[in-house]
Amino acid sequence: MSAVTRLTYLRIALVVVGLIAIFAVYPLFQLWPSGWSWGHGHSHYPMMIVGIYATLGVFLLLAARDPLQHRSLIWFTVWSSVVHGGIMAVQAVSDEAERGHLLGDVPALLLIALVLAWLMPKPAVAAA
């Protein structure tokens, strides 16, 4: 894939992930709580996560304008998604009540990390 094509797809991915982060996290908590909402409905956690991901989503939309100038934010999104998804995977395996997350938010976070990492320009291209 050419560098220009990769950058175009990265911009699209940043917009899609940004819009999902802003607009889809809360509805997913409501529509599929066993796959997206932790704490069995008795926690302040969901609204904190909605706020954090909505904020990240806004910044990913801004980064889509010029991804090369926002590499650190994109790599933060990649690595924080891997760490967050990994921790949730361990917790979902160890807590039977949270197993639905292995089909919900865990793979979603890992997919986002994989796509963004794969689309990030190689260092030589980014320097050019």
TrEMBL record:
Pfam families hit by this protein: DUF6632
UniProt key word Transmembrane helix: yes
Taxonomic classification: Bacteria, Pseudomonadati, Pseudomonadota, Alphaproteobacteria, Hyphomicrobiales
UniProt keyword Protein biosynthesis present: no
Residue ranges of the TM segments: 12-32, 44-64, 73-94, 100-120
Name of the protein described by the UniProt record: Cytoplasmic membrane protein
Keywords from the UniProt entry: Membrane, Transmembrane, Transmembrane helix
InterPro entries tied to this protein: DUF6632 (IPR046572)
Native source organism of the sequence: Bradyrhizobium pachyrhizi
Superkingdom of origin: Bacteria
